[in-house]
Amino acid sequence: MKKLIIPLFIILLHFGCKENKKQEKPIVDSEPEYVENTSSPVQTESAIKIIPISHATAVLEWKDITIYIDPVGGAEAFTNQKKPDLILVTDIHGDHLSVETLEALDTEKAKIMMPQAAAEKIPEKFTPQIDVLNNGESKERYEITVEAIPMYNLREEALKFHEKGRGNGYVLNIGGERIYFSGDTEDIPEMRSLENIDKAFVCMNLPYTMTPESAADAVLEFEPKSVYPYHYRGKPNVSDVSKFKELVNTGNPEIEVVQLDWYPSEDY
User: Within 10 Å of residue 29's Cβ, how many Cβ atoms?
Assistant: First the structure.
């Protein structure tokens, strides 16, 4: 009997020691170990800075890219502005195309987009820089896609000013936004059918383009998030921008009307 008891005691002692060894292992926390996130943060689109120069001329800045819209007024009009990377010209008239200004500015590294009619008036030395863009065409530069939109007159008495197919309005797809510059136009079907426009720069001056009432009616149809009245000085009067704002806000209060100072000099 004693011979049986001793082995049984040894067996129980052996298993007891193994169990104690198991309990000596550290308890692992159920929460995962924190690991520092070294991946790059999600990149958000940079803000677009809009600088009105005069009438139809503007400067846009996005990231490290600077865009000139219809640069006129000589180099002095762009004092303290960054050098252009991209230049857009809408038409052949002097308030949109100025060869003297292009020659006076430092445009050596700039790409220039313009319709064929404008390109024909540019000295040959600019040819390597020019992207000819006609109605319905598009081009990408600097991660910006530029769409050429028609601009022309509808009224019989104004047809001589802007014939269909000669000039361009532009939609810039830039920084996650769609920005429209109308150029010289009336409230044409191509404007009214625009979609997903974040910022719209819309002209309104007689006798060359359209009335504030026509401009407001078009804006209410294509419904941009924000609209910037520009190019509103005609001959002899300045268009009633306050009337335009009233019509837009009455028709759709969700459309923001932004008034910038396009005529800092009364000499224009």
Answer: 7
Q: What architecture (CATH level 2) is domain 48-257? A: 4-Layer Sandwich (3.60)
* Partners of 157 in the β-ladder: none
| Integer Cα distance of 88 and 102 in angstroms | 11
Strands of 199-202's sheet in order across: 138-141, 144-151, 167-174, 177-181, 199-202, 226-229, 256-257
Closest CA to 105 of 70, 131, 139: 70
In sequence order, what E strands does the chain have?
48-54, 57-62, 65-69, 86-88, 111-114, 130-132, 138-141, 144-151, 167-174, 177-181, 199-202, 226-229, 256-257
pTM equals 0.81
- Residue (of 52, 137, 66) closest to 106 by Cα position: 66
The residues, ordered by sequence, that sit 6+ positions from 147 with a Cβ below 8 Å of its Cβ are 137, 138, 170, 171, 172, 173
Q: How confident is the model at residue 29 (pLDDT cuts 50, 70, 90)?
A: very low
> 256: which 2 tokens?
């923001």
Q: How many CA atoms lie within 13 A of 16 on its CB side?
A: 6
**What is the tens place of the pLDDT at every residue in 56-113?**
999 999 999 999 999 999 999 999 999 999 999 999 999 999 999 999 999 989 999 9
Q: Per-domain residue ranges for the chain?
A: 48-257
> How many percent of the chain have pLDDT more than 70?
81
* Separation between Cα atoms, residue 161 and residue 157, nearest integer Å: 9
CA distance 19 to 101: 90
